[in-house]
Amino acid sequence: MADTQYILPNDIGVSSLDCREAFRLLLPAERLYAHHLSRAAWYGGLAVLLQTSPEAPYIYALLSRLFRAQDPDQLRQHALAEGLTEEEYQAFLVYTAGVYSNMGNYKSFGDTKFVPNLPKEKLERVILGSKAAEQHPEEVGGLWQTCGELMFSLESRLRHLGLGKEGITTYFSGNCTMEDAKLAQDFLDSQNLSAYNTRLFKEVGQDGKPCYEVRLASVLSTEPILDSEMNSKLKSYEFQGSNFRVTRGDYAPILRKVVEHLEKAKAYAATSHQEQMLAQYIESFTHGSIEAHKKGSRFWIQDKAPIVESYIGFIESYRDPFGSRGEFEGFVAMVNKAMSAKFEWLVASAEQLLKELPWPPAFEKDRFLTPDFTSLDVLTFAGSGIPAGINIPNYDDLRQTEGFKNVSLGNVLAVAYATQREKLTFLEEEDKDLYIRWKGPSFDVQVGLHELLGHGSGKLFVQDEKGAFNFDQETVINPETGEQIQSWYRSGETWDSKFSTIASSYEECRAESVGLYLCLNPQVLEIFGFEGADAEDVVYVNWLNMVRAGLLALEFYTPEASSWRQAHMQARFVILRVLLEAGEGLVTVTPTTGSDGRPDAQVHLDRNKIRTVGKPALERFLRRLQVLKSTGDVAGGRALYEGYAAVTDAPPECFLSLRDTVLLRKEARKLIVQPNTRLEGSEVQLLEYEASAAGLIRSFSERFPEDGPELEEILTHLATADARFWKCPSETPSGQA
C-alpha cells in the first residue's frame, strides 16, 4: 500500500453544506439567478482539471462514466464479486470523492498527489468489468490505458505540484523551468498583459531558440473581432532573444458553456450593477480579456449587499508554482443576516482600527474604501477547494483605488473546522475543552480581521506610466532604515508579479498577523459579542490555534526540495517561528511520547504573556512585512520571509524531526458535499445529498444531467491536444494517448 501521506483514509471526515433555509427565503427570480450562476461556476470549475495534472481530465472522465452507469451501491456489488474487500471498495469511493472535491488527483490544500488505496490490478478488474465498460468498451478501456499508470504512480517528480524537477504542473509545459517562468513574466509585464488567465507552453525551434506560447483562456481563438482590445496583442514577439507568441482559446468549449449561463443569469439580475458585471465577465471569457474582468469586478464591488452574492473567474494564484496564474473559481451564496450585522459593525470601526496597526500613516491607503463584508451561506463553490473567507478582487490597482469585498463563508466554517476531542492533537490536556468551546467563535473573529483589515490594509508605493508617484518622495521615511523610500512598483508591476513565488504566502502571513494583533483590541471583541473572561478565552484560543496550526503546517513542507506546498500553512509556520523567537516562555513546542507509545508533541502558550511578550514581537514583525511590501523590496522581503520559513533540525524545536511526528498523527482535511440546483419548468429545486463519499459521488453524477458525456469528451479532447507537452519516457507509459 502507498505511504499514508499519499492516500485519503477510509475514515476521512465528510460533511454536507447546509444552505436549505437561506435558499428557501429566495424569491423565484433570485433562485433563477442563483441557479444559472451556479451552472456557470460548475462548468468553469472543470477547467481546474486541465490546470492540475496531465492525467486529471482522463481520471475525471473515467470515474464519471463509471458512476453514471452504476451508482455507488450498484457498483459495490460488482466490486465485491470481483474480489474487492469492503475496505478496498470504500477506499475507491473515497479516492473518487477526493478527485471530485479537489478537481483533480492532487490535494488543493498542500498540492500533494493522492492515489487509490487498493491494488491497481483489483481496480482494473472493477473498471474493465463494469457496466460502463460493457456499454462502451473502447472508450472506458482507452481511458484506463491512458491514466491507469499515472493514477497510481508515486515517482518522485509526480508526488507534488511544482515546476521543472520540483513537481508537475499544467500551468507550464513539462520542459519549463523557473527561469522560463521569470522570462515569461518579464515579457507579460513589458506588454502590460496579466498572467491570471494564461498558461505557458515552450517548444524549441529549428534554429535552437526557444519559442513560448502564451495562451489566454477564451471562447474565441483566431476569430478577429472588430474593436476588441485583445486583437492587437495576438501576435508574435521577439523578447530578450526568445520568440513569444500570444494566442487564445484555452478551455474554449468549457468557457462557452460558462458564457451561456452567465447570459441566462443576466435576465434575472436584480440591479444594473449585476447586469453590467455579468456583461463584462462574458466579454472577458469570450475574448480572453483580464481588463474586461477588472471592469466586471469594479461593478461587482459597487453592487452592495446583494441577496445573492457571486464571483467567477481565474482568481487565486496559490497553485501556480510561479505565483501569477489564477485557478478558475466560481461561487454563489446567500447572505446570513445575523453574522453579517457583526461584520457591518466591524467595517464601521475599520478606519479607527487601521490606525492601531504598527506602521506609519503614509504606509496605509490614502482613503479607506468602505467594503461590503457579509457572512454567506454557500450554495455553490466550484474549484479545487472551499475557503473559510475571501477578500477579492485580487487586482492590486482596483484594491488600491476602488476597494474590495470581504465574505465569510458561514456554513463552510460550521462544518469544515469542527473538531472532535479524541482527534485533537498536540495540545495540553487542560486546553482541549477550552479549545473546542472557543475555536469556532475565535475563528469567526480571526477570519473577519484577516479578510477586512489584513488583506484590506496597506499601501503599495507606485510610479505610474507617466512617472507620477502615489507617495511623497521627499517626506515619506522608511521606519526600518530612517531614510527616504528607495524602491517602489513601476507601471505594470504588481505584488504577484514582483514577489512571485512568495507573494501568496507572504500576504497570507501578513493578514494572519493582523488578525492576531487586532484580536487583542477590546473593541473588536465587543463587536463579536465577547467581554470579560469570555473575551480573554477567545483571544487565548485564537493565538493557541495559530501556534498549533504552525506545527501542523510541517505536513506541507517537503524536505527533499526544501520547499512549502501550501501558502496558508507556510504563513502559519512563520508566525510560530516569530512567536518562538519572542522568547520568555511565550511559546514552547516539546517532543513527547503519546499514550500509544509513539512519538508525540505538545504546544504550550503562556496566556499571561500574550500581550506583554507576544504583541510587541508581532508588532515588530508586522511593521517589517508591511514596509517591505509597500516599497516592493523583493530582496529584503525574501530574506525576512524565507529566513523564518526555513525548516531545520536545530534545537530546541528540531522541526525536521517534529515533521515526522506531525505526519504520523495528521488528520485528513474534510471533504465537503455540495447541493445541486435543478430547473423544473420555471421553478428551481434544491437537491441535497448525504454526508458520505457515496453522497459526494452522487452529487457529481447528477451535476451535469444534460451533457455529462459531452463534457467528458471535451475534457479528454483538450487534454489530448496538449498531451505532447508533458510526454517523456519517465512520466508516461509508452503507447498512451
Automatic annotation (TrEMBL):
It catalyses: Release of an N-terminal dipeptide from a peptide comprising four or more residues, with broad specificity. Also acts on dipeptidyl 2-naphthylamides. GO terms for biological process: proteolysis. GO terms for cellular component: cytoplasm. It is found in: Cytoplasm. Its EC number is 3.4.14.4. Zn(2+) binds at H450, H455, E508. Its cofactor is Zn(2+). Signal peptide: none annotated. Keywords: Acetylation, Aminopeptidase, Cytoplasm, Hydrolase, Metal-binding, Metalloprotease, Protease, Zinc. Transmembrane segments: none annotated. It comes from the Eukaryota. InterPro entries: Dipeptidyl-peptase3 (IPR005317), Peptidase_M49 (IPR039461). Binds 1 zinc ion per subunit. This is Dipeptidyl peptidase 3. It comes from Lipotes vexillifer (Yangtze river dolphin).
